[in-house]
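Recall that a protein's primary structure is simply its ordered list of amino acids. Everything else, from secondary elements to tertiary packing, is in principle encoded there. The following example makes that idea concrete.
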Amino acid sequence: MEEKSFFAKVDSINETTYDTNTLSVLTKDKERVTIRIDENEKLKLNAVYYFELEQIEFKEKLQYLVTKFESIEEKDLEIDVRQELMSSFYEYAPKNASEIKDIVESYLNKLTNPVIKDIVMDIYESKKAEFYLYPAATKFHHAYIGGLSYHTSTMLKLIDGFKEVYNFINEELLIAGIILHDMYKVKELSNYAGAEYTKEGKMLGHITMSVKSIELTAAKFNHIGKEEVLLLEHMVLSHHYYGNYGSPKKPMIPEALILHFIDNIDSKMTVLEETLDTIEPGEFTSPIMVLDRERYYKSKL
C-alpha cells in the first residue's frame, strides 16, 4: 500500500459511526485532502500537524489513514522552517522568526542574578515552542502567529533608551518582567490559530497563571522567600495597571512602572502603525478602539 506524509492544517473534523473519523486538511501546497484517523485521537481545528499516512480501502474506496501525527509545536524543526510552514497557512509576525529569537535570547543572556535567571530560563525553556507560535492577543494587537514573541522582542529593545536615561533601573528585573509578563498567554489561549480563551484563561487569566508559575518555579530551585521572587511576581501582577484590566495591584517599583509603560506603548503603536498602513497620506484613520476610538491623521511628510 502507498504511504505518504505532509504538513497540513485541520479544517474540519467529522465524527462517524465507524472507528475512524474523517478529517478535511489543507496542505502547505493548498491541496485539499480527506484523511481518516482513529476516533480516540483528539486534534484541534485550525491547528497544523505533521501527518504520516498509509493507503487503505474503506467502503470500497482507496483512502488514507493516519498512522502517526505530531503537532507543529512538538515537531523538532528549525525556527525558520517552522515560520515558512506556518506562513503557508496564516498571517505571521512581520519579522523573521530567527531574528526575533536572536533578540529575545540576547537579552536573556544578560541575566546573571541566579534567582532571576533560574526562574526566567526555566519558564522560557518550558514554553519556548509555544512562545514563538502564539499571538499576543485574540484581537487588537499582535493578533497573528508569532505575535507574542514579536511583541516581547520589541518591548525588550525599548529597554535600552529607558536604561540610558534612568540608570537607577535594574535592567535584569526589567528584562525578566518583559519575558514573563505575557508568557502564560500560551495557556490562556486555546491555540495559536483562531484562538479562543481556555477554561483556565477565562477563570484565572494569564496574569494569575504567570504569578503561580513564578512561585512554583521558585520552589523548584529553593528560592521561596527571596526578594527577587516577590519583585518578579509584583511586576507580572501589576503590568496591566488597572484592576478592570486584570491587575489587582498598581506598580510599586520603578521597573514595574516601566514595564507597564513599555507594554502600553508597544501594543498601541503597533496597532497605530498597522492602521496607518491601510490609508493614504492626507487621510484620517477610522476610529481606533485601543486608542480611545480617536482618528489619526497620516501626514504627507
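The two ends are 65 Å apart (CA to CA). Residues 79-271 form one domain.
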